[in-house]
């Protein structure tokens, strides 16, 4: 009986692993297509990129690309890493932290491109809902990372309830990221 239950668990585990690998493949394909479409749009319809170019529009084109790469693609990769990559818990944590760090640095470079664009045109930085929501989301992202780093050494009795609540924070940041994207579309139609 015990042998049969062990084989059933292994069979279910194998099915879950296969489904996760298909799901992981699908998300990677969606991420590559999203990045490719944004690059195509920026090159074809917005005349490319330029950080040190006198044309401020070319400098601003870095903002959507870096924000999508950072906070949407690399953040998603960091979350998927726990299920898609096999390894020890410690190595998965390192991969997760590295991908989130890359997401933060890439996102901050995107914010820098937008701020530089606004500075050169002498436009106020926080004049749309998109900008306020975006800055708030970045602060939430950083606060969540700081909270995780501060709870690393906690005992299991104290840490487990906090980690269960952490999932609500993760979902909240994801919803905020989607809200930033939606407010961008709305602000383009309103202004």
Write up this protein.
It comes from Lactuca sativa (Garden lettuce). The chain crosses the membrane at residues 21-43, 63-85, 97-119, 131-154, 166-190. InterPro entries: CYB561/CYBRD1-like, Cyt_b561/ferric_Rdtase_TM. This is Cytochrome b561 domain-containing protein. With 191 residues, the protein is an all-alpha fold. The protein has two domains: 30-117, Four Helix Bundle (Hemerythrin (Met), subunit A) (Up-down Bundle); 126-191. It has helices at residues 2-45, 56-60, 62-84, 89-121, 129-150, 156-190. α1 packs antiparallel against α3 (62-84), α3 (62-84) packs antiparallel against α4 and α5 (129-150) runs antiparallel to α6 (156-190).
Strand and helix layout:
Layout: H1 2-45, H2 56-60, H3 62-84, H4 89-121, H5 129-150, H6 156-190
Helix pairs in contact: 1-3, 3-4, 5-6
Which shape, going by the Cα principal axes? globular
Number of strands: 0
- Share in helix: over 70%
Q: Evaluate the radius of gyration.
A: 20 Å
Strand content: under 5%
**Oligomer category:** single chain
Uncertain segments are none
Which structural class should the secondary elements be placed in? Answer: mainly alpha
What is the correct CATH architecture of the largest domain? Up-down Bundle
Largest pleated sheet: none
Kindly report how far apart the N and C termini lie.
Answer: 69 Å
Reported by name, the CATH topology of the largest domain is Four Helix Bundle (Hemerythrin (Met), subunit A)
N-to-C SSE string, H for helix and E for strand: HHHHHH
| CATH class descriptor of the largest domain | Mainly Alpha
Count, helices: 6
Query: Which whole number gives the mean pLDDT?
Result: 80
């Amino acid at each position: 009986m015990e042998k049969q239950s062990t084989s059933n668990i292994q069979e279910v585990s194998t099915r879950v692993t296969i489904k996760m690998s298909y799901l992981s493949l699908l998300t990677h394909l969606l991420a590559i297509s999203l990045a490719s479409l944004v690059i195509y749009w920026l090159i074809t319809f917005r005349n490319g990129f330029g950080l040190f170019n006198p044309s401020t529009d070319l400098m601003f084109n870095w903002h959507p690309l870096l924000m999508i790469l950072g906070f949407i693609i690399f953040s998603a990769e960091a979350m998927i890493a726990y299920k898609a990559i096999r390894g020890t818990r410690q190595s998965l944590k390192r991969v997760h932290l590295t991908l989130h760090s890359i997401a933060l640095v890439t996102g901050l470079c995107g914010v820098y491109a937008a701020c530089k664009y606004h500075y050169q045109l002498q436009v106020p930085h926080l004049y749309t809902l998109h900008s306020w929501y975006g800055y708030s989301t970045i602060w939430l992202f950083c606060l969540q990372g700081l909270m995780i780093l501060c709870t690393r050494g906690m005992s299991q009795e104290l840490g487990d309830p906090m980690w269960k609540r952490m999932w609500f924070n993760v979902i909240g940041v994801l919803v905020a990221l989607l809200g930033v994207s939606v407010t961008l579309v709305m602000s383009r139609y309103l202004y």
